[in-house]
Fold this protein.
Amino acid sequence: MILAIAEPSVPASDAATMEAVSCAVQISAIRSSTVILASAGKDFEEFRNAEGVRLPCDVVLIEGQSLAHYNAEGYAAAITGLIDHLNPTEIVIAGTSRGGDLAPYLAMRISAAYISVVTGVRGEGGSPVYTRPCWHGKMEMDVVSRRERTVVSVQPGAFSAAPLVGDERFHVERFPVSVALTATEPEGTLAVSQGDDTGLANAEVIVSAGRGIGNRENLSLLMELASLFPRSALGASRPVCDYGWLPYGRQVGQTGRRVSPRLYIACGISGSMQHLAGMRSSAHIVAVNNDRDAPIFRHAHAGVVEDCATFIRVFLDLVKERENGKATQSEEI
Ligand SMILES: Cc1cc2nc3c(=O)[nH]c(=O)nc-3n(C[C@H](O)[C@H](O)[C@H](O)COP(=O)(O)OP(=O)(O)OC[C@H]3O[C@@H](n4cnc5c(N)ncnc54)[C@H](O)[C@@H]3O)c2cc1C
């Protein structure tokens, strides 16, 4: 059987959990096997209260006092207990911040192969062949496991999080564990401030800055471009936030916001998997990049191969010219 692991402390309908289940279902079709979704924690109120969740598999709740707060040591020990009980061939975990922490730890613990950042899976001779990006997303590689057991972490956004065909009344079983933590002792979690409200969630148009904009000063050009559209907002890739050019609340991607505006204008953004995870569902993607081979062009509906600042200045001038032309025409009338 294939074991999918739910994202800790979130409802069963969480996108990351659903994506892990989607991948597990694909592996189970290749192996002619079944899927079980396991969630570890102390209190499953939110998980249980998720309304209208449809799952194509049964659920096991791994319950333990030491699992109140996520920590790799406790979670890996608890999940190992269930693995010993169920004997899965694959353990599928969403490649979120927590999943990226847990998956290699768990793989080491159970002496399994570890395949990270998986974006696709297909069958060959009844065994799964995994696809993952390499060379900063410019190439993809196929990977097969040589071990009897494999831990797979799934790239957020790569598998469908849409409600899966299944049953609302999936069977739920409890699996109590007692885990003694020896290396770590979690003391709680602190929410990190995401900065001011950015308007990203409701924006119809997002102009997003990447490292390729070159410097903080060029942000004013992007702001002017965004101001042409009502209900627009400024987004950013991670390096732009790391440099302190914009606050982290504006970061789009796997560890930032997930957005799906009507128009996403990516300026000087290469199109890493982690950035795409947050914006690939945008209705229209326009990319401006001076490298014609940048991966973002494979996902963009329209592309401009040009220096960002040059393109935006020319575009803004054209808009102004058109507006001046319209104003002169109406004066003549
Ligand atoms: C666990 C993890 C989580 C992550 N989460 C996120 C996340 O949530 N969001 C995120 O964005 N990243 C995230 N990252 C980082 C991610 O891997 C990339 O490093 C990042 O997205 C790259 O940002 P970028 O495209 O702005 O920069 P780069 O990859 O450096 O790309 C810059 C682009 O600008 C182009 N360029 C250069 N000069 C110009 C110019 N003058 N005019 C036009 N184009 C130009 C270049 O050709 C290049 O394509 C994460 C990484 C990890 C490991």
